[in-house]
């Protein structure tokens, strides 16, 4: 009954199908599935080795609990920011909420399915990653590790429900655009926070760090409620049952309270037509097709939703570069290490910017109807993306010029090469950046991302070999 | 600008000969079409008879399998850029960047058609004023209604003062007042010597605006002429264009 239209499972199957077809794996080139499979097998191999090591040298129970808790907190933060943007997509961005609400399906069912869809989509990557380790541990008789599956799903349900609630609240108060910005900012804060914490050993005195971790340990009583989820993750039956129940109740409570406003249509696309937003500046008229295309591309780049977050994410590579150049951080390779890092960053920024432009070109037929050569729009996009990447790299380049001027020639060679390669590559294989609107096809492919990272890495390596006096010394 | 661009003032505005295109099945088959400067031509026909395909081929967006297209003497197939420079194509879906404002959009279009910057700025202001978009000139188009988007793209189509306007269902989404305004603007443009070819399913518009009407069927012209001529072809002594159209296409 539930499987036949318009039953709950039938609707859930539809939702998961839509999410699957919008997912990065399906949006990608068909041949990328083969390397993805190879990477999966490699991951499982590494996980088996890690599992064997964990069985041979068991980690003390207290430390395991702390590690499990830290992982759950990190996962919560990462899943929450992702759930926020996904919730905005399914409520507002995808544009099919009104379409479903206009059907005779109970709105509460539509909402439940949407929330479940978000939960599954945020849990899936972590289930895949965590699953390989859990499988490996189970292969060595550590069956408790399999509790990662129900625990991650439960956590995702709770996170999805909370994110949904926050998104509904924000949509009502500040509208979809600002709500999306909050989601992106949160994602950025989480990403930067994790990066900064990862760098803690470089700027916190070791004794103080050790004292901090010691204070965080759960103690002999298991840490009480604060470690309930961690104990569930480590397979303790009662804690697992209590954690699952808590998450399910949380999900149900949010669903009950959101079903009514959802039914009234207050959180659907129709309720939040974007108001007229002021453009940043007036237009400049120029009698040049290239200038017009270049200006349009720069505007679309600057106005791409989440552009700041994405650029900051990618530019985190600049932190170690600036630390190295300012002498705050010493590596075996010395200051020369800055060159391959900058080349890699340039490649990634170029790939991102050109993908934004390829994805933002919503009306290619308009330009096709204009009296301009077919190659001109592509050249303008390449120029605008390269220009944007160089603007971000200007400060570190000046720093290199000031500290190690002899590094500039190989660095400029590497920058030119990686920019040219990835800009051309991105035009052909843009990386997938945004879910397509309802009724629109998706642009972007994971193949572009894989090839782009490979190209950036290859150029970074080449510049390292060219610039470093003893490129292999660090191996010794 | 129009005087400068028109290299062959005596030429037909549009001359289509033996135009054919198939996508597995024949969509346009041996179409002959001639439009004079200053003429307002309505291309009518049931769904799927090749109206949009014909306009796309004329606009240089699609290469025909056979035939020739000349716009004011310029061969669209041999010199597509030269022909595009004096044409504007307005499809049924507004081709607009949601994240640009109307003024930015017009600056972009004017740049693509290399319109002198001072002239383009003046024209943009006039068009936005005329079409009632001036108060919204610096707002991004993402929040615009369908009608406002349609008016913005119409302003884009007119900013370079094209000699041939190709309009595919231009009245979709427009309210009565906007539709009247657009009709007035288009008529003025035709009176100034430009040729206009439009497809529409709103037959009253074609009846009121068009100086000549062509009815497509099976990818070729089934009938052509003004309303009295079409009535005569249909063997009717009176009736509206709708009566004539239905009589001819369902016969």
Give your account of this protein's structure:
- The complex is a heterodimer of chains A (476) and B (251).
- Chain A has 476 residues and is mostly helical.
- Chain A has two domains: 8-206 and 216-272, no CATH class; 289-469, no CATH class.
- Chain A has 18 helices and no strands.
- In chain A, α1 crosses α5.
- The radius of gyration of chain A is 25 Å and the shape is globular.
- Chain A starts with 7 loop residues before the first helix and ends in a 9-residue tail after the last helix.
- Chain B is of the alpha/beta class and 251 residues long.
- Chain B has a domain at 1-86 and 163-172 and 194-251: Rossmann fold (3-Layer(aba) Sandwich).
- In chain B, the strands form two sheets. In chain B, strands 6-7-8-3-9-10 form a six-stranded mixed β-sheet, sandwiched between helices.
- Residues 1-8 of chain B have low confidence and may be disordered.
- Chain A binds chain B through residues 273-279, 282-289, 291-293, 295-296, 299-300, 303-304, 360, 362-363, 365-373, and chain B through 59-61, 81-82, 84-85, 87-89, 91, 95-101, 103-104, 106-118, 120-121, 124, 136, 138-140, 142-144.
Instruction: Give the number of DSSP strands of chain A.
Output: 0
Shape of chain B: globular
Read across the widest sheet of chain B, the strand sequence of neighbours is 6-7-8-3-9-10
The greatest interface here is: A-B, 36 and 43 residues
Multimeric status of the protein: heterodimer
Mean pLDDT value of chain B = 90
The CATH C-level name of the domain at 1-86 and 163-172 and 194-251 in chain B is Alpha Beta
- The low-pLDDT segments of chain A are none
CATH architecture of the domain at 1-86 and 163-172 and 194-251 in chain B: 3-Layer(aba) Sandwich
Low-confidence stretches of chain B: 1-8
Structural class by SSE content of chain B: alpha/beta
The major beta sheet of chain A can be summarized as: none
Radius of gyration of chain A: 25 Å
The span between the termini of chain A is 67 Å
Number of strands of chain B: 10
Counted up, domains of chain A total 2
Average pLDDT of chain A, to the nearest integer? Answer: 85
Helix content of chain B: 25-40%
Distance between the termini of chain B: 46 Å
Instruction: Classify the beta-strand content of chain A into a percent band.
Output: under 5%
């Amino acid at each position: 009954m539930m499987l036949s239209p318009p039953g709950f499972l039938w609707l859930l199957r539809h939702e998961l199908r839509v999410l699957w077809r919008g997912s990065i794996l399906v949006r990608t080139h068909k041949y990328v599935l083969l390397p993805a499979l190879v990477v999966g097998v490699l991951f499982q191999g590494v996980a088996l080795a890690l599992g064997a090591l964990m069985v041979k040298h068991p980690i003390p129970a207290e430390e395991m609990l702390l590690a499990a808790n830290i992982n759950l907190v990190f996962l919560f933060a990462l899943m929450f920011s992702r759930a926020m943007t996904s919730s905005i997509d399914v409520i507002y961005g995808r544009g099919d909420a009104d379409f479903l609400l206009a059907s005779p399906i109970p709105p509460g069912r539509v909402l439940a399915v949407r929330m479940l869809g978000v939960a599954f989509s945020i849990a899936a990557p972590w289930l895949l990653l965590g699953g390989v380790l859990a499988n490996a541990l189970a292969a060595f008789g550590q069956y408790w590790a399999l509790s990662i599956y129900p625990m991650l799903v439960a956590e995702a349900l709770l996170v999805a429900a909370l994110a949904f609630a926050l998104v509904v609240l924000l949509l009502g108060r500040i509208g979809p655009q600002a709500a999306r910005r909050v989601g992106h900012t949160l994602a950025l804060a989480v990403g930067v926070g994790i990066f900064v914490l990862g760098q803690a050993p470089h700027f916190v005195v070791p004794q103080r760090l050790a004292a901090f971790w010691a204070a965080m340990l759960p103690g002999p009583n298991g840490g009480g409620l604060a470690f309930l989820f961690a104990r569930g993750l480590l397979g303790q039956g009662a804690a697992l049952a209590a954690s699952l129940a808590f998450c399910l109740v949380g999900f149900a409570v949010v669903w009950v309270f959101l079903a009514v406003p959802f039914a009234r249509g207050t959180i659907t696309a129709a309720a939040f037509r974007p108001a007229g937003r002021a453009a940043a500046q007036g237009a400049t008229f120029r009698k040049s097709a290239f200038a017009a295309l270049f200006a349009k591309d720069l505007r679309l780049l600057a106005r791409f939703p989440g552009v700041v977050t994405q650029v900051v994410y990618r530019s985190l590579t600049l932190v170690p570069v600036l630390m190295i150049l300012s002498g705050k951080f010493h590596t075996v390779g010395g200051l020369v290490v800055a060159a391959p890092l900058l080349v890699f960053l340039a490649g990634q920024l170029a790939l991102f910017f050109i993908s934004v432009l390829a994805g933002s070109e919503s009306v290619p037929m308009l330009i096709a109807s204009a009296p301009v050569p077919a190659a001109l729009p592509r050249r303008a996009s390449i120029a605008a993306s390269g220009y944007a990447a160089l603007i971000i790299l200007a400060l570190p380049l000046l720093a290199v010029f000031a500290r190690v001027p002899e590094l500039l020639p190989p660095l400029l060679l590497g920058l030119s090469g990686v920019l040219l390669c990835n800009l051309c590559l991105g035009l052909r294989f843009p990386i997938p950046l945004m879910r397509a609107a309802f009724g629109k096809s998706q642009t972007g492919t994971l193949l572009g991302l894989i090839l782009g990272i490979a190209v950036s890495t290859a150029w970074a390596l080449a510049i390292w070999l060219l610039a470093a006096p003893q490129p292999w010394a660090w191996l010794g | 600008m129009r005087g400068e661009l028109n290299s062959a003032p005596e030429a037909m505005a549009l001359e289509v000969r033996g135009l054919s295109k198939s996508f597995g099945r024949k969509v346009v088959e041996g179409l002959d079409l001639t439009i004079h400067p200053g003429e307002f031509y309505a291309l009518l026909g049931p769904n799927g008879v090749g109206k949009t395909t014909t306009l796309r081929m004329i606009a240089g967006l699609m290469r025909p399998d056979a035939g020739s297209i000349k716009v004011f003497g310029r061969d669209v197939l041999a010199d597509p850029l030269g022909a595009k420079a004096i044409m504007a194509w307005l499809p049924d879906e507004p081709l607009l960047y949601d994240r640009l404002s109307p003024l930015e959009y017009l600056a972009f279009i004017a740049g693509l058609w290399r319109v002198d910057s001072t002239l383009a700025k003046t024209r943009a202001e006039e068009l936005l004023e005329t079409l009632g978009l001036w108060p919204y000139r610096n707002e991004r188009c993402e929040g615009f209604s369908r009608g406002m988007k349609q008016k913005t793209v119409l302003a884009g189509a007119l900013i370079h003062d094209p000699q041939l306007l190709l309009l595919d269902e231009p009245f979709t989404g427009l309210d009565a007042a906007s539709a009247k305004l657009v009709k007035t603007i288009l008529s003025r443009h035709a009176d100034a010597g430009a040729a206009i070819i439009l497809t529409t399913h709103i037959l009253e518009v074609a009846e009121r605006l068009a100086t000549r009407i062509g009815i497509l069927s099976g990818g070729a012209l089934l009938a052509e002429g003004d309303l009295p001529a079409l009535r005569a072809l249909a063997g009717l002594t009176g009736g509206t264009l709708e009566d004539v159209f239905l009589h001819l296409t369902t016969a």
